[in-house]
């Protein structure tokens, strides 16, 4: 462990993982990415079939944090006012007053986010990007930290609304949640099939702890060569032919945005910090790259016809683009 990163917060993070582990088994990868988002102000989009503990993981994590949490079930009849709040008439005062909605929390679980229409998505977009909402003619700043953890089901498309590209780009990472292995599935079955099972998750990290951790992550060193490596990866998605990626060039419609540079840098620093290092390795960038890029690369119809997905494109880019050692 490097001496200039204090050990106490890593002890707390390990305690937090144990608390979440009281209910959640085998989703270490998802929890790691949620913590990266929490510690870098990055919203996270979780995608996976139903029943993989996406909602349970987020709600369990919220209990281990001394923060205000709200779960919002997105439905086709949800209105923007159901999300941000509205103006109501106070008969006693003979005047209108603001009734704030569930968005005024620190952690927001937007469950099945793709089931609500464009107006709701627009209201959420303002909150995610600007950290503020507008009710009537008044603008309210949201409390910090503010983090949106959204889930969506990739299987059912009937009755869903594709997220606008501008909103998708606001998510720091899109994390695919996969099935558990046999041993993990057995452990879940034994624990949750026990009707006498009782557990309580205790808060571990406070708001001040999170702010201190953010400050420490900001001090994690990343070399100039690795900064340039991030830029090369980004430009490889925009101009694949210049990097010898001929096949990828025929499948990519649009490359990643400038936000991808920022998020890849922050994500690599946070991953290094969680591994108890005060410097970034190339492996940190490669590991986070898939989650940062996969929702930002737009593929054309030819890619869809060939059965090519963004993760395959990213894997090839990581194989081809070299790290500048200079």
Question: What does this protein look like?
Answer:
There is one protein chain. This protein is α/β, with parallel strands linked by helices. The protein has two domains: 8-210, Rossmann fold (3-Layer(aba) Sandwich); 220-320, Helicase, Ruva Protein, domain 3 (Orthogonal Bundle), CATH 1.10.8. It has helices spanning 8-20, 28-40, 54-63, 80-84, 118-130, 165-168, 182-192, 207-218, 224-238, 246-249, 258-274, 282-293, 301-306, 310-320, and strands at 43-47, 69-73, 85-90, 95-100, 107-111, 132-135, 138-141, 147-152, 171-176, 252-254, 298-299. A five-stranded parallel sheet has the order 2-5-8-1-9. The two termini are 27 Å apart.
In brief, what are we looking at here?
By secondary structure, the chain is α/β, with parallel strands linked by helices.
């Amino acid at each position: 462990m490097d001496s200039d990163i204090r050990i106490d917060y890593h002890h707390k993070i390990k305690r937090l993982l144990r608390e979440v582990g009281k209910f959640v088994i085998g989703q270490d990868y998802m929890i790691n990415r949620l913590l990266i988002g929490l510690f870098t102000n990055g919203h996270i989009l979780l995608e996976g079939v139903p029943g993989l503990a996406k909602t349970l993981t987020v709600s369990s994590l919220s209990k281990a944090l001394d923060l205000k949490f709200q779960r919002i079930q997105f439905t086709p009849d949800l209105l923007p006012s159901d999300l941000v709040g509205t103006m109501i008439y106070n008969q006693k005062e003979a005047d209108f007053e603001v009734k704030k909605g569930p968005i005024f929390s620190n952690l927001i679980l937007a469950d099945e986010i793709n089931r609500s229409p464009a107006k709701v998505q627009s209201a959420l977009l303002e909150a995610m990007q600007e950290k503020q909402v507008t009710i009537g003619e008044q603008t309210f700043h949201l409390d910090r930290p503010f983090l949106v953890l959204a889930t969506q089901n990739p299987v059912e498309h009937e009755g869903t609304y594709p997220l606008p590209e501008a909103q998708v780009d606001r998510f720091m990472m899109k994390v695919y949640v996969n099935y558990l292995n046999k041993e993990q599935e057995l452990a879940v079955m034994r624990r949750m099939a026990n009707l006498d099972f009782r557990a309580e998750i205790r808060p571990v990290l406070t708001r001040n702890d999170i702010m201190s951790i953010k400050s420490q992550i900001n001090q994690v060193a990343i070399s100039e060569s690795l900064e340039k490596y991030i830029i090369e990866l980004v430009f490889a998605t925009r101009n694949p032919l210049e990097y010898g990626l001929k096949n990828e060039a025929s499948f990519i419609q649009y490359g990643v945005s400038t936000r991808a540079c920022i998020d890849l840098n922050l994500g690599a620093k946070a991953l290094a910090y969680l591994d108890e290092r005060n410097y970034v390795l190339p492996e940190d960038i490669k590991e986070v790259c898939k989650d940062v890029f996969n929702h930002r690369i737009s593929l054309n119809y030819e890619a869809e016809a060939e059965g090519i997905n963004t993760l395959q494109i990213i894997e090839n880019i990581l194989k081809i683009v070299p790290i500048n050692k200079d």
